[in-house]
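Most newcomers find our protein records easier to grasp once they have seen one. There is nothing in a record beyond a sequence line and a structure line. Getting from the letters to the tokens is the skill we practise here. An example says more than a description, so a record of this kind follows:
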Amino acid sequence: VQLVESGGGLVQAGGSLRLSCAASEFTFDDYAIGWFRQAPGGEREGLSCISTSDGSTNYTDSVKGRFTTSSDNAKNTVYLQMNSLKPEDTAVYYCTASAGDCLQADFGSWGQGTQVTVSS
């Protein structure tokens, strides 16, 4: 399972970014795709999960209402739309996949991630 994140960058507080997570070598039909982030010196934090079979999603409280994850199965791509960004959202963002749905997800494979920097 190989995933490639893109879309990171530098944005001012209050701005928006959309991250993409593209899959190669497998199709998204029945996977849980999670978004995580890791700030310098911090632990990896789970942000969201989408079950590509039915589009169901869940979010951690710190991003609920600001971040939205969606899936375009035809493009084998999952997105993370991030609005109302805050300096504390600065981190490397990763996506990861697990067969099945979010309730059963067992994430353990990580790519290079994409850097998001939010300036105050």
